[in-house]
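Onboarding guide, step 5: your first structure request.
Type a short instruction followed by the sequence, for example:

Predict the 3D structure of this protein.
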Amino acid sequence: MLKTVISLIAIALAAVLAYATTKPETFRVQRSTHIYASPETIFPHIDTLANWPAWSPWEKMDPAMKKTVSGPTHGKGAAVAWDGNSDVGTGRMEITDSIPLSKITFSLNFLKPFEAHNTAEFTLEHTDDGTRVTWAMFGPQGYLMKLMSVFVDCDQMIGKDFEAGLAALKTVAER
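The system replies with structure tokens like these:
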């Protein structure tokens, strides 16, 4: 009996490990919102890292988070490193490209709770009555991330933070 139970557990474990290998090599999480404000109003809230505390969802998760800003105040080369609680972890992001009023790209390097190196971007599209803002994060999905995705919906987990951040950005920009 015990031998049968152990065999079934081993088969189930092997099946989960094998299934994880079928997951995609890359991931992408993306959310969008419409903001009743111009790109000229919205862009500085994203491109100037000192403005992020007014709308970033992670600021609320750890108000005591330690941050170190480096480089220029905005645009390409502006960077922030953070060290926070288990909800926000430790990492660094740097603006790698900034196209005024339309797109900002970041390198995003997480160190804790696990190491990951991704890219994030904001795109702003002018509309008749405001701006469509899209926040995306994408990158490689190594085996451990694939295995985690068997049990945790990363799109939903990260997506809810993006939705909260976009809602807060909307509130700030529409004032």
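Each response can be followed by summary notes, for example: The beta strands are 26-35, 66-70, 79-83, 90-99, 103-112, 116-127, 130-140.
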